[in-house]
Write a structure and sequence with these properties.
The structure holds two protein chains of two kinds.
Chain A lengths: L20 H14 L2 H10 L1 H17 L3 H7 L5 H5 L5 H27 L2 H8 L3 H5 L5 H35 L3 H32 L5 H45 L6 E4 L2 E4 L7 H32 L10 H13 L1 H27 L6 H4 L6 H6 L5 H22 L8
Antiparallel strand pairs in A: 1-2
Helix pairs in contact in A: 1-9, 2-6, 3-4, 3-6, 3-9, 6-9, 6-10, 6-11, 6-13, 6-14, 9-10, 10-13, 10-17, 11-12, 13-17
Chain B lengths: L2 E10 L2 E11 L3 E5 L6 H8 L7 E6 L2 E2 L4 H7 E4 L11 H11 L4 H15 L14 H13 L5 E5 L7 H17 L3 E5 L3 H7 L2 E6 L2 E7 H4 L2 E10 L4 H9 L3 E5 L2 E5 L7 H9 L4 E8 L2 H8 L5
Parallel strand pairs in B: 3-8, 3-9, 6-7, 7-8
Antiparallel strand pairs in B: 1-2, 1-4, 4-5, 9-10, 11-13, 11-14, 12-13
Helix pairs in contact in B: 3-4, 3-5, 4-5, 9-10
The chains are: A mainly alpha, B alpha/beta.
């Protein structure tokens, strides 16, 4: 018993406005989640890519200042153009560095959401906390925003804030304020991408969390959703690619065989040649057989190259990557950061010397002995097509928008106001 | 005026929870009575601005129930009937969180949480996770969370549910102190009529979404003219015969006779009739309605 019991006292202190009540939910949720050891460990590990990003930006800043220590390391790795005019490629290199950083952080983000998110609503449902929330001066939107804010905090902590800090360090090491003019897009693009991941992954996780009172099922559903959509997309894409490639090569070879009938020393099994024994052939037939086989191999290689070109053209219309949830987020990230254009810039730096090199090599070693990669026409987009999703980013925006609407629908139907019968 | 409702109707599909309910209630301690499905919870939610009504209008603490819902919830404290807790917090964190949700700054909310927990009598237990609390402790905790922001009106929905007799008594004392000692208006919804009678001055009786009775408990429990409770020493047969002979009525209820005198007869006639029957009156008291009788009469059941 207290020595002096004051009893109940009235309270006349200041109150905050309604607009920021959601912050109370977010702040308390963040504090509660931080007490988990797993969350703290994951936060620590998720900051590692930021260190690599900082190192990359610092190295580039020192390269621009012609620091010999950095030059000696980078000269054997990078194309000569980049070494000679680093300022010209600054924007592209920074963008690519940020792109890799955000790709790594996307994986960490999805993992962090899986650890932080499942409890957010399911535990409130289990403990029947909703009447406590909604009988206070709170709107349902405050509740959702507060819960989303918890996820937003952690995603900002591992992606947006480290990206901003790395940017400041990069600017500091460049000793050139024009770097801000060249790269400011990465700051707002990164922040916007962080917001996209937060809203999309956060609302989806909250919707899943509102479907059951058992958090473990929510975590499993989230992992299953991310992993299965990624697997399905990968399988569909590969199956389609292999089928198209085989069809293109088959059609091309059928046509070639119609124009170039097999000589006496070659027997065809479908479009595959089988050589007859040399002892059964005359010298002239053997020579014809060898010549025809060389032509057949060359034709097949051409058809395979043609299939690759067709694939490159088709990847801009291929919907299969859209099935993967992480790929959609990744695609939006590429669009916001301008990764495609950055790879094209680097592509030019690599392709142009190569196409220039081809004729020089031909003069020295003869045209028939040049490696095929030196004879192909220059393609500035080759790297971009290899490194960046090529389907329209609008498809991903539509998929993510649809998932957001679905999540909001689930949330509003599962987290009801108290305007209902008991 | 504590609250005023005009022709409020609220339906859930084909179920009418409130049927053109009109009521005016002055500040004080109000008991809310009614059988299950009478519309008590819907009325409470209407007062809290938690539900959209189909028609009608009203105001609570001078605020329109349609237009100023958040302001109403700011000024009202609510202790729900259900077992509901903010998860994974100690008791003091629970109450402070409730205060912060009402707009208190974190430091103020924590200080105030300790004050109200002292008041409701949760001592060292306030540092334990709320999941480990007994039913009685949870009820006290919910009361503390409901009063942490010092509401002008406190709504308690079945506050003594699941509590042992000692805890129930303490809860009633707290409610009575808040209503009568601290100037807080109170709406006390309970099935336990003695609890309501202990705490409240006024009652509202609801049934099928309509107001069946309303008034001060003292007035509702009026004395019945010419009606008395009588206990005799011996066999009451002769006494009963004389009562009936004078146009009165009497019936035996346990060991007590409930007597209604005939027209024109004074209470003194009871002594005379007992003497004539050779009996002694050992107990005589004017008959008054209990709150239970008032309630049952209002909802249309016989005593």
């Amino acid at each position: 018993m207290p020595i002096f019991d004051q009893g109940y006292q009235h309270w006349k202190g200041p109150l905050t406005g309604h607009a920021w009540r959601w912050l109370v939910i977010a702040r308390n949720g963040v504090k509660a989640q931080l007490s988990g050891k797993l969350v703290r460990i994951l936060l620590f590990v998720a900051w590692m890519p930021a260190l690599v990003l900082v190192l990359a930006l610092v190295a580039w800043g020192l390269l621009e200042q012609r620091a010999e220590s950095v030059l000696s390391v980078l000269r054997p790795i990078l194309p000569p153009n980049l070494i000679q005019n680093p300022q010209e490629y600054r924007s592209a290199v920074w963008t690519i560095a940020y792109s890799f950083f955000f790709k790594a952080e996307l994986s960490f983000s999805l993992l962090l959401v899986m650890i932080v998110g499942p409890n957010l609503i399911s535990r409130d449902l289990r403990m029947n906390a909703l009447p406590l929330y909604f009988s206070r001066p709170l709107r349902r939107s405050d509740y959702f925003l507060g819960k989303l804010g918890i996820i937003g905090f952690y995603l900002a902590a591992i992606a947006v804030v480290p990206a901003a800090v790395a940017y400041l360090v990069g600017v500091a090491f460049s000793l050139d304020m024009s770097v801000i003019r060249d790269t400011h897009r990465l700051l707002w693009g990164g922040a916007a991408y962080g917001l996209v991941i937060t809203v999309s992954a956060g609302s989806l996780m909250l919707a899943l969390s509102s479907l059951t009172r058992r958090s473990i099922y929510v975590g499993l559903a989230w992992a299953g959703f991310c992993f299965l959509t990624m697997m399905t997309s990968g399988i569909l894409t590969e199956v389609r690619y292999e089928t198209d490639r085989a069809t293109t090569v088959q059609e091309g070879m059928d046509k070639w065989l119609a124009d170039h009938p097999a000589p006496a020393g070659v027997e065809l099994m479908g479009s595959w040649p089988r050589l007859k024994s040399a002892s059964d052939l005359s010298a002239a037939e053997r020579e014809k057989q060898q010549k025809w086989m060389q032509d057949w191999r060359a034709a097949r290689r051409r058809q395979q190259e043609k299939a690759e070109i067709t694939k490159t053209a088709d990847i801009r219309r291929d919907w299969r990557p859209v099935v993967s949830y992480p790929s959609n987020l990744d695609r939006i990230g590429d669009a916001l950061l301008g990764t495609d254009a950055a790879w094209v810039t680097i592509g030019k730096a690599i392709e142009r010397p190569r196409t220039t090199l081809g004729p020089i090599v031909a003069m020295n070693i003869g045209p028939h002995q040049i490696p095929p990669e030196l004879t192909e026409p220059g393609n500035d987009r080759r790297l971009a097509e290899l490194m960046v999703w090529q389907f329209p980013w609008g498809w991903s925006a539509a998929v993510l928008g649809g998932l957001l609407l679905l999540s909001l629908l689930v949330l509003t139907s599962r987290v009801k106001s108290l305007d209902r019968l008991k | 005026m504590l609250f005023r409702l005009n022709n409020i109707t609220k339906t859930y599909g084909r179920i009418t929870a409130l049927r053109q309910l009109s009521v005016e209630v002055a500040p004080g301690a109000i008991g809310l009575l009614g059988p299950n499905g009478a519309g008590k919870t819907t009325l409470i939610r209407t007062l809290l601005g938690l539900i959209g009504i189909d028609s009608g209008s009203g105001e609570i603490l001078g605020m329109d129930i349609r237009a100023r819902q958040l302001d109403i919830r700011q000024a009202v404290g609510f202790m729900p009937e259900d077992e509901c807790l903010f998860p994974a917090v100690p008791g003091v964190g629970f109450v402070a969180y409730a205060g912060e949700l009402c707009g208190m700054k974190a430091g103020d909310a924590m200080q105030r949480a300790h004050e109200v927990l002292n008041y409701v009598g949760l001592d060292e237990a306030r540092y334990r996770p709320v999941e480990s609390y007994s039913t009685g402790m949870k009820q006290r905790l919910k009361l503390a969370a409901a009063i942490v922001h010092d509401p002008r009106l406190l709504i308690l929905d079945e506050p003594t549910n699941g509590m042992d007799p000692a805890g129930r008594k303490e809860m009633i004392e707290l409610a009575r102190d808040l209503a009568h000692g601290k100037g807080m208006s109170l709406i006390f919804s309970s099935h336990l009529l003695p609890d309501v009678e202990s705490v409240c001055d006024h009652v509202l009786v609801l049934g099928r979404g309509s107001l069946l009775a309303q008034g001060a408990i003292k007035e509702l429990k009026q004395a019945h003219p010419g009606a008395f409770e009588v206990r005799l020493k011996g066999d009451p047969a002769g006494f009963l015969a004389r009562i009936r002979a004078t146009g009165g009525e009497a019936k035996l209820h346990a060991d007590t006779l409930l007597v209604q005198l005939g027209d024109g007869h004074e209470p003194e006639s009871l002594w005379r009739m007992a003497a004539e029957a050779g009996e002694q009156i050992r107990y005589l008291r004017p008959q008054r309605s209990t709150l239970e009788e008032v309630f049952l009469k209002a909802v249309g059941e016989k005593v």
